[in-house]
Amino acid sequence: MKNPARPLRRADFPEAAGILVWALVGGLAWAIAIALALLAGCTVNRLAPAEGFPKLEERVHVLSGKETRDICAPYVPAFWRALGGIPYGCMRVELCEGTCDVWISEHSPGGLAHELEHCRGYDHWFESTMADALAGARRICPERLP
Ligand SMILES: [Zn+2]
Question: Which of 61, 87, 91, 132 has its CA at 20 to 30 Å from residue 109's CA atom?
Fold first, then answer.
């Protein structure tokens, strides 16, 4: 990460190789987030990681609430924004580079374990984001991901 304080843009994420997954959505949307937990957003992860998911270098960045929002907010889905959703953390894997960055608010240390599970290949229930990213990265850098 060249400058973790710079807000990330979609262009920072090479298609398929770089993904960002939401950890927690808070603020006014919190109660609704729980209600919708099985439908969308960051919830409980699966019991096993994506098959063959590599071990990545995990880099945790603990930030103030504002810094976390600045970095993660552009990736809050529109419907969460409309509900007042505030990100407490997010993560990004670069499978071809072998790294996983987690940005987490100092006010939400509980979200760190969840984000680190994503770094280790765990998807949310009913989602296959990490597995799909691994499949995409295997096409982009097969020498790194046999
Ligand atoms: Zn999550």
Answer: 132
Report the SS3 class of residue 140. Answer: helix
Distance 9 CA to ligand 1 centre (A): 19
What's the 85 CA to ligand 1 centre distance in angstroms? 15
46-103: per-residue pLDDT in tens? 788 999 999 999 999 999 999 998 998 887 778 877 888 778 888 999 999 999 999 9
> How far does the centroid of ligand 1 lie from the alpha carbon of residue 24, in Å?
7
pTM over cut 0.85: no
Spatial CB neighbours of 42, under 8 Å, sequence gap ≥ 6: 21, 22, 23, 24, 25, 111, 114, 124
